[in-house]
């Protein structure tokens, strides 16, 4: 099967510090891949190399290759802004634009890249809010500030904003870590629905969550503080949680770590 994302030999630096080393992995379209591993092993750093957000950090630099379909995201002449349109991101803390209405939050990305017909905007916003399982809760308050929603609603608003521009890939960095259990389940259900249309990569510290939502799981680790993080193994989630190939993976998922 054709890969949506194909990473080879990727290292990422913060100035002279190499945070992750020589990572290679392939991700199929319409799948959910979970990144797990101890704090500091480079999960967020690696995630941000997949849409060229890593280089936004001063000193941030990447070596290696990230193919999105048949395009090398680090190739010459590639515009990072257009990469971020194709590879959207949802963060740990819901970050709706605080002064904008619910409607304008969802419309923000579309307005920024101007790739829509004015007459269609309302339909796209509605479709995106429905896609994020938020429409019924906000349809009567589209003109109220997005920051007035609950945390779980705000996170679904951010997902609606991300999917409104129809990215190929959706990156999520611990999207539930600031949410209560009910909102967390709502997001997990949503991920199951969104993978019909998008390729999803999610970082999580919650092993049950990784097991529940993902098709593939990648375990990252670092040999010591100050050493670069590495990909230890990636495999079907079922396999990682029942019979991983590497002892360190087994130790981590069973809580015998450190
Ligand atoms: N802006 C930065 N400048 C310098 N070093 C950084 C920066 N951000 C992260 N690092 C370092 O890079 C390494 C990987 O960090 P990263 O945030 O990717 O880990 P993580 O696996 O996401 O951890 P966590 O599970 O705690 O979120 C760590 O050693 C971290 O201290
Ligand atoms: Mg992180």
From TrEMBL:
Q: Which GO terms describe its biological process?
A: phosphate ion transmembrane transport
Q: Which CDD domains match?
A: ABC_PstB_phosphate_transporter
A single Gene Ontology MF term assigned here is: ATP binding
What sequence ranges are listed for the domain ABC transporter? 5-247
Its cellular-component GO annotations read: membrane
* Source organism superkingdom: Bacteria
Is the keyword Transmembrane assigned to this protein? no
Give the keywords, sorted.
ATP-binding, Nucleotide-binding, Translocase, Transport
- Extract the Pfam families matched here: ABC_tran
Q: Which SUPFAM superfamilies match?
A: P-loop containing nucleoside triphosphate hydrolases (SSF52540)
Name of protein:
Phosphate ABC transporter ATP-binding protein
* Provenance organism: Streptomyces dioscori
């Amino acid at each position: 099967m054709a890969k949506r994302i194909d990473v080879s030999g990727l290292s990422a630096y913060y100035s002279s510090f190499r945070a992750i080393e020589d990572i290679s992995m392939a991700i199929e379209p319409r799948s959910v891949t979970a990144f797990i591993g101890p704090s500091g092993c480079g999960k967020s750093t690696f995630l941000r190399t997949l849409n060229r957000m890593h280089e936004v950090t001063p000193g941030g630099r990447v070596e290696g290759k990230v193919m999105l379909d048949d395009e090398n995201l680090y190739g010459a002449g590639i515009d990072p802004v257009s990469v971020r349109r194709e590879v959207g991101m949802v963060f740990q803390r819901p970050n709706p634009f605080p002064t904008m209405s619910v409607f304008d939050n969802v419309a923000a990305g579309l307005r920024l890249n101007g790739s829509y017909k004015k007459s269609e905007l309302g339909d796209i916003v509605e479709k995106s809010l429905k896609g994020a399982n938020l429409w019924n809760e906000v349809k009567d308050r589209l003109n109220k500030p997005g920051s007035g929603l609950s945390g779980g609603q705000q996170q679904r608003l951010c997902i609606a904003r991300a999917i409104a521009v129809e990215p190929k890939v959706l990156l999520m960095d611990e999207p539930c870590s600031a949410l209560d259990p009910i909102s967390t389940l709502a997001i997990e259900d949503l991920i199951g629905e969104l993978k019909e249309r998008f390729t999803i990569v999610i970082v999580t510290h919650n092993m049950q969550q990784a097991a529940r939502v993902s098709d593939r799981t990648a375990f990252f680790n670092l040999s010591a503080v100050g050493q670069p993080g590495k990909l230890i193994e990636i495999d079907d989630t079922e396999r990682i949680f029942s019979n991983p190939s590497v002892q360190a993976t087994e130790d981590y998922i069973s809580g015998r770590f450190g």
